Amino acid sequence: MLSRVCVGTMVIFLLYWSPPGHADTLHEAAKTGRLDAVKSLLDKGADLAALNEDGETPLTAAALAGQTVAVTLLVARGADVKGRNKGGFTVLHAAAYAGHAGIVEFVIDRGIEIDDQANKAEITPLHAAAEQDNLDIVKLLIEHGARIDLKELNGWTPVARATFKAHKEVVKLLRQHGATCEPPNRVGERNYRFCMNPGG
């Protein structure tokens, strides 16, 4: 069994949210931002909730690829902004993980749960953004009220995830907003010192 420290969000997404391989036509059109093709397929009755071989909806595929206009179109045509992929991740997790601020704001404005943990890894969008060093997304999520110290399945908070990856600016920001460093007996002396003084 992998240790709790080494099983990062990246591994979690590779397991449960792998990039599309043999996507169906609507997924591929959404992912590549071909809006005319998306519209045409939807007009012909393409299923907005269909999962491709990788367990993604067209909406999550578009979000991971940063296709903001495609995301907007899919939602306007009835895609469930609160829908999930096969691992239980939402479009907000996808956008936070991939670093797409416009999509993050768009789905938050439409009422998506900002601290959602109803997925196989129990991570929040803030965990995903923090581990991927997406500082602007971390700021955005905090501004919208994301809770700082929620723990995922392995017991780690967003600041712990950022600490393990040595993401200095993310750790500093989370600490400024009250994030608590894990003790040395949990994360090791080096990680503890980094968390307590990421600028040192």
Characterise the protein shown here.
The protein is mostly helical. It has 13 helices and no strands. α2 runs parallel beside α4, α4 runs parallel beside α6 and α10 (158-164) packs antiparallel against α11 (168-176). The chain is elongated.
Rounded mean pLDDT score: 90
Largest sheet entry:
none
Low-pLDDT windows of residues: 1-7, 14-23
Overall number of strands: 0
Helix content: 40-55%
Which quaternary structure do these chains form? Answer: single chain
Q: How many helical elements?
A: 13
- What series of H and E elements makes up the topology? HHHHHHHHHHHHH
Strand percentage: under 5%
The helix/strand class is mainly alpha
C-alpha termini separation: 34 Å
> What spatial form do the alpha-carbon principal axes imply?
elongated
| Rg calc | 17 Å
List keywords for this structure.
disordered N terminus, mainly alpha, 200 residues
Brief write-up:
The chain is mainly alpha-helical. The protein is built from 13 helices and no strands.
Write the layout of secondary structure elements.
Layout: H1 9-16, H2 25-32, H3 35-43, H4 58-64, H5 68-76, H6 91-98, H7 101-109, H8 125-131, H9 135-143, H10 158-164, H11 168-176, H12 184-187, H13 189-196
